[in-house]
Design goal:
CATH class: Mainly Alpha
Order of helices and strands: HEEEEHHEH
Number of domains: 1
Helix content: 55-70%
Mean pLDDT: 89
Radius of gyration: 19 Å
Shape: elongated
Structural class: alpha+beta
């Protein structure tokens, strides 16, 4: 199981999504405060001690990380693994769509400028790793089918 390259891709995917949950994605800068855009809330880091609860994006990342981790153990059912990968790709694309919508709404509410952090790129890295894992799984399935055809 661990010797397959797609397992390593999926483990790196899980690691990148878990890291994205705990890292800030960006900062909002207002005249009197700096807000940190994180997975479950937009928190004030300087100035007033308030926050805007927004947990949906963190939940999407947690579900994607969990499904990628679970798919590792479906190594004998390659087509099920591919379905997990497709689900993760669609969910991560949805994550970025909701992220941008929430970004503009929060930016308008706070009347602030926005700067990105490294945490914003980690789900994108996860999408690339998920795509690589899916291609490796499909390549593996193709080899198995060719072997069965020859036999």
């Amino acid at each position: 199981m661990i010797q397959r390259i797609q397992t390593l891709y999926l483990l790196m995917l899980v690691a990148s999504l878990v890291a994205a949950i705990f890292m800030p994605w960006g900062n909002f800068f207002t005249a009197d405060a700096v807000y940190s855009y994180e997975a479950f809330a937009v928190k004030s880091t300087v100035g007033q001690a308030d926050s805007i609860a927004f947990w949906a994006l963190g939940v999407v990342l947690a579900v994607c990380a969990l499904s990628a981790f679970v798919s590792i153990f479906y190594f004998k059912q390659r087509l099920t693994q591919v379905r997990f990968c497709i689900f993760n790709l669609i969910a991560l694309i949805g994550f970025y769509i909701v992220f941008v919508i929430a970004l503009f709404i929060t930016k308008a509410q706070l009347q602030a400028s926005f700067g990105l952090n490294f945490g914003f790129a980690l789900p994108l890295v996860g999408m690339i790793l998920d795509f690589l894992a899916m291609n490796a799984i499909l390549k593996d399935e193709k080899k198995v089918r060719a072997y069965q055809r020859i036999r």
